[in-house]
């Protein structure tokens, strides 16, 4: 017996195992073909010493010029790697000891449910019967034969494990273990030294024998057993383990004899320094020789035998093999994982060198057990490991028996770990074609897949020691975080041009930096040129793979960088150059011909930065003498303040510190202390000096979400302009203007904003002003920006992408909220401006109104007809018809019976709302409202220097003692018949007191009511400026130097309103011009009205207002104005509602069937269906048009209306709960799909579908004659509301049958919706038991909540006079949790539990259900429909009060 020592000295720089780098940068490698146990010693000489204890010395040396060539030459010798199946590059989940099939499926379903990219599920040895190969546990894994098919239904694959050791014992019940018996008959086992007796050891199943894969008999047996097993348990690939070979006994059950094979003269530095430790005796016999010689080939031989087995079963179809033990050449057939590691940071680090080494060894399909095999992995470790593991070629999360689950979904659907995992796995899946191509190159040329940085940059000696970064092929550099509690790491960046994968911006940075992004999402579907990132994205090319194409593009990006220097009409070269700007022709439609030079704007003069913000003084670049509007003098010196209000909100304000310029008096809820801890802020603010600009960067992604460092910043007395680059083309908001799509078109569109009595129309400024937008970034993060400015303004979008603000007064005061989700943007925004009002419950009922009721009898008749038809209906209105000559607070004689009718209707559960306009007639001889108002000096007047008289307009009130001739044209009627009207100044406290008194008198002396509708409060006037159409004072206020693109802008700002030089008085006594506060008139009107309503009724009721401004939603709802009866208005109402959701006004809707023009039958019917899902659901139309209420048509119309309103009333408890969440959290009620599915870019353009909250998807028919609607179904489980059936499609647009009587509704799996049996009014439906609609997700879970109060009490939330319950369902177990333990509700408001509907209950018959409340168990009857899998449990008879916690369980028959 001999042992050999071979020392090889080299004169060069250094060694890494078997690879040497020479000074001249040529690569040289040696390969020693030893399969005998051996060791190597490295020493600083530099030198390496080989020692082996048998065989011969057989060296192969490769002289490749580069490291890559060395590997390629080596693999040409031993065999190039197998090309794995494409699906095997997907993410994989495994665990030792799931324990049963149910737990495996639970794992699968919870990771499906959260949308985790995930291709493969494993089962470890626990699937086997007593851990015996080729068996399965028919108790705990009885469904295993169907498991592969279950996975295949969702495009997933199944891999199972086999070990080499075969048990010698019987099977369960004493049955023979036929695999062992057949192997024995074939002499398939490794034998003792006698060459006859099978060597016995002990592994997982107990006493075992060991297949001798070097024997043909054994190979034949192994192939046969595998084929038999595959016929029983279908699967897609095979994982072979324990093939070193592993043995729990030292050598054998008998031990090992003392000889030179078991105890050689020299024992290498191996585990335990015993040759047979944890394996077989070295004198055991195999067909290839003594185990001493072939021990290291055991795994290799098993791989060869398994390859034959796989070929037998799968034929020409590619599959996958994964082996633990390997030897040169194994990579031709199999992949490898780095073994049973532990959950610690060191093992995560070690995995990278391990992968790089196996890249050298010719096994590129390699990876480590993500999150570690042994020990519990904490969240940070597992999160970081999932990040780097997303870039292992073999990407599998796997852990051991006895430790907690560590699959991503196990950490929670809202966990940072899950979001981070989804983000990086999405990147992996995005780049799988690249990874697959690398495997093709490995298979055909021997290139490495996971590649050391030195392989590409071997001439850079700094890369020779880099082992904490790696490449995918040539082009993708991965730099993971490998240490605890760090968010910045040092990385080596080789000398090349690199792009940040997340931001696509050019810089000397790594292509993918984990420490930048924890939970962002990126995909490549945008079709635009991202100028600031210099990235062109082309999509939808429809090219056929395999054909040859040449793609060309021609762009002139510099033209998209132009910012318009002459936005006024009539620009020419002379005017342009007079402003110091550049005149240049362009071929791009809409691009400006006149644009600012690069240095146009302001320059930073001084700057002071503190932990709470930045203060700057900036000065105008005097190179440009004037901004070109002489009537609006430039302000040369400005102050800038940046304030870090919170971790998610920053403010930047720009103003003239030397003058008292107007600032918006709307109070905001700003944190009392700033966020001074930079590490907690989601944003980083920087300032560019010349031209001055502010940049706000989202720290987690590096995305610039605001960048005003562009030319053109102008600040003059009556003209302010600022532009910013946008983070993406996805911008939503700005109002109130009719928009044809929810997402703005950035192709040079300008939108004016100025409150006006203007019906909806394209690019026509309407009733309110909301200078707020939400932007989606390409990473799927969202932010929102408010410009707190109330002057007339416009915004211009251009494809840069960029946005330009222009306003004609005030200051610039921006507030930015950072989200990062769309819902969080709205929540943060409403935390700033004020949460939406909680409407009275009854106001969620259906409502009827009409301008043109002839008398009270017509209203009474309508009410009776609606009751006869049984159509749900809660609120009746009276428009200005009820007033005598349209005078506020005065009842017309034709409506003298109305107060009694109102009382009668209210006794029957109905509610009544009256309209009030702000304009008060001044032509009456006995009109207390005007007389008291004049005495209190509450009307808007001229400034004292101009006369101190009331500014008179004309609106609806008619002159006394006249008969209006309606045959005359409108202007003539106004001139002859309309009174002079005065406009209350609602800023003043005196006005609020006067308004309260008038409303109180009306309520107490004329008629009762439950809500108020305030209209015409832009303020609207039927004349321009004044009754004489002459405005006093500065004419520039009426026609400013710059006029935004407003409707009738040629007439001036006073078109259909009062003069801009009118004076108003703020509550603090400060005088302001109407020019500055015009857009706040409706805002100032809302709060006094709501306060008065509550004061006189002692209920909260509802106020509906036409004109709004940010924070109006605190007091009022809003309807979308005087729309038209047309199909386009039908779909645009969805856009309007979604925008007002952004604006913080949840209670919103459009006039159902349209206000102007005659409604058409089908359109009105479809509008009734859509309107049934408006939060504010009112059918209303204009004077002179036929009635369009549900009973005005035919029986079919009434029936369809009744049915769809019954659905609305059924779901009102859910809608009311959403209103509560809006009121307390700022969540949206009408919710765009992108708010719930922001990672699905298909939702970013959807505006013809919407959600109620997170769970109810509404897909209306919006076109004439439509009987099929195309609707998008996001990638989660959905149920058809009408049938309770699961919708099979996910993540795609599908055709939905939509007969005339149907609107498509879908309920999202995973949610619980409270409901009640509908009645004709909410007064009665509220008395019904509460049902629960439980829509189970893919994992059998669901959750929901229920809010309940008296429905109309004042401040019930603030006083905690309400019931709030959380419901959860898991594993056929429903639990209620009462959030506010002390039940404050009066007995009359208590609600009992009713019917529970469980959707997705499965196709195994549920036969038993039990309700437990207050310690008492109650059996429930079950009605389980196996066809639609709906389970109905009726608890009504049990009279269980909801304020007492309860549980319900159900189960199948045993």
Give the beta-strand count.
78
Structural class per helix/strand content? alpha+beta
Q: Please state how the strands of the largest beta sheet are arranged side by side.
A: 19-18-17-14-10-9-8-21-20
Percent of residues in β-strands: 15-25%
- Alpha carbon gyration radius: 38 Å
Low-confidence parts, pLDDT < 50 over ≥5 residues? 1-28, 504-532
What is the helix content? Answer: 10-25%
How many helices? The count is 28
**Mean pLDDT across residues:** 93
Q: How would you sum up the global shape?
A: globular
Q: How far do the termini sit from each other? A: 67 Å
Question: What kind of sheet is the major sheet?
Answer: 9 strands, parallel
The oligomeric status of these chains comes to single chain
Describe this structure in words.
Helix 16 links the parallel strand 48 and strand 49. The chain is about 20% helix and about 25% strand. The N terminus is likely disordered. Strands 19-18-17-14-10-9-8-21-20 form a nine-stranded parallel sheet. The chain has about 1450 residues and is of the alpha+beta class.
Outline:
The protein is an alpha+beta fold and 1454 residues long.
Comma- or semicolon-separated keywords:
alpha+beta, single chain, 9-stranded parallel β-sheet, 21% helix, 1454 residues
